[in-house]
């Protein structure tokens, strides 16, 4: 099997599995978290909803990074390739923005936990 086909299959599986598990996690947070987790529920929602959106964009775009010398290009290989040029570009920019946001979400969760536990 060609490496590109293996990447496509694994990316599809991981993205759809992440969508399924994060949707289940949101349902569990909504239905099963009681009063002990009332303060912590917001931070659980933040991580689960962020991961759900990111997994959906990854499933739609299936980005492929191509490096040529010192230049890097991102090619779209998912079904978003067929929905039109401006919309696919906006979706790709949203995924890049969410990649940067993932760096701050861990910090926000840590600080929120610190305030809940220590203060």
TrEMBL record:
* Segments passing through the bilayer: 13-31, 43-60, 66-84, 96-116
Q: Which residues form a coiled coil?
A: none
Q: Which terms are listed as keywords in the entry?
A: Membrane, Transmembrane, Transmembrane helix
A Pfam family reported for this protein in Swiss-Prot or TrEMBL: 7TM_GPCR_Str
Q: Which domain of life is it from?
A: Eukaryota
| Name the record gives this protein | Uncharacterized protein
């Amino acid at each position: 099997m060609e490496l590109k086909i293996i990447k496509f299959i694994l990316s599809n599986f991981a993205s759809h599995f992440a969508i399924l598990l994060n949707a289940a996690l949101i349902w569990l947070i909504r239905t099963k978290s009681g009063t002990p987790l009332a303060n912590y529920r917001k931070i659980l929602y933040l991580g689960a909803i962020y991961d759900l959106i990111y997994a959906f964009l990854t499933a739609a775009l299936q980005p492929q990074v191509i490096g040529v010398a010192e230049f890097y290009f991102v090619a779209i290989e998912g079904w978003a390739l067929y929905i039109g040029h401006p919309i696919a570009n906006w979706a790709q920019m949203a995924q890049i923005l969410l990649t940067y946001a993932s760096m701050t979400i861990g910090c926000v969760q840590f600080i929120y936990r610190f305030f809940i536990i220590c203060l």
